[in-house]
Structure formats: C-alpha cells, structure tokens
Amino acid sequence: MTSRGVLYLVVCAAPAASNVEDLVVLAQAAGWRVFVIATPLALRFIDADRLASLTREPVRSEWRMPGEPKALPPADAAIVAPATFNTINTWATGITDTFAVGVLCELAGSGVPIVAVPLLKDALARHVAFGPNLDALRSMGVRVLFDPSAPPDARMPPWEQILTELAALRAR
User: Fold this and answer.
1) For residues 57 and 8, what is the distance between their CA atoms, to the nearest angstrom?
2) How many helices (DSSP H) and strands (DSSP E) are in the chain?
C-alpha cells in the first residue's frame, strides 16, 4: 500500500475519545502514519499507552522543552476528533493555551488539510461564540463536520466517514 503521509490526530476530552484507537487502526489501514496529539484533559479519556503501541509513537500533549529534539514530522493532514467547545473556540481565536491547539493554529496557518469534528452538549452548540468560530475555521480551509440540527448523540459521524471527508478535502 502506498503511504498517504503523516496524519496528526488531535483528540479532545469528549466521550468519543475513548474509542479513538478505532480511528487510528482505520487510518493506518488506509496508509497513514498516525501521530496522536491529546489535549491535557483528553488523557483521561484515552489509553495513551495503547495508542503509543498502535502508532509506535508517543502520544504528545505538552510542548517540548528547549534543547529537546522535535518529535513530530511535518503533517500532511490532520483530524480533530472529537473536538470540544473549548478547543474549537480557542483554536478559532488563536489562543494557543495547549500544545494541541498550538499545533492546530500552526497547521491552519500552513494550509494543511484539516477535518474538525465537534462533539459537545446542545447548550454549548447554541452558545453565541460557537457558530462564528466554526465559520472562522471554515474560512481558514478547515472542513467542519457538524450538523446542529442532529440530535446530540448522533452528531459524531462514523470514523470511516471522517476519513472519507479527509480524502475528499485532500483531493481538492
């Protein structure tokens, strides 16, 4: 199989994060070299050791210290799933308060294809800041998979659909 390149998988603290290893396996089967980047709170939802074993790379959640080697090769694409209310809003406004959001800001500024999949409570989806921040991300070229009319428990598309959306975004 031909390699599709390096995929950054940014994982946030939402229930779907607990089975993100299924997305890793699917992405690897599709030819991606996957690097998992977790928000600090996402570490409570994932099995970082299992993900590191699957990817043969450590899960990153903190900035490297000066003098430490760069551990991430340049990304060819990224998926942010699940993406929380906090991550969407800080990313869209350029507030790099976590390593994960800092990476996303850099990727968006570099034109790397990104698919973002918000997963949040209905009340948060109606917050006045959320819609404009989704629009801001879209204006940066981010493909946002979010249907506000879907019931909250049906807003997260299947992992396969997320990978299909990424392939379509890269084909443009």
Assistant:
1) 11
2) 7, 5
- The 3-class secondary structure across 45-102, one letter per residue, is CCCHHHHHHHHCCCCECCCCCCCCCCCCCCCCEEEEEEECHHHHHHHHHCCCCCHHHH
35: β partners:
8
Pairing of strands 32-38, 77-83: unpaired
Containing H/E element for 124? helix 122-125
37-46: pLDDT as tens digits: 999 999 999 9
Sheet holding 32-38, edge to edge: 32-38, 5-11, 77-83, 114-118, 143-144
pLDDT digit string (tens) for 97-154? Answer: 999 999 999 999 999 999 999 999 889 999 999 999 999 999 999 999 999 888 877 8
Beta bridge partners of 83: 118
- Cβ pair 90, 103 in contact under 8 A: no
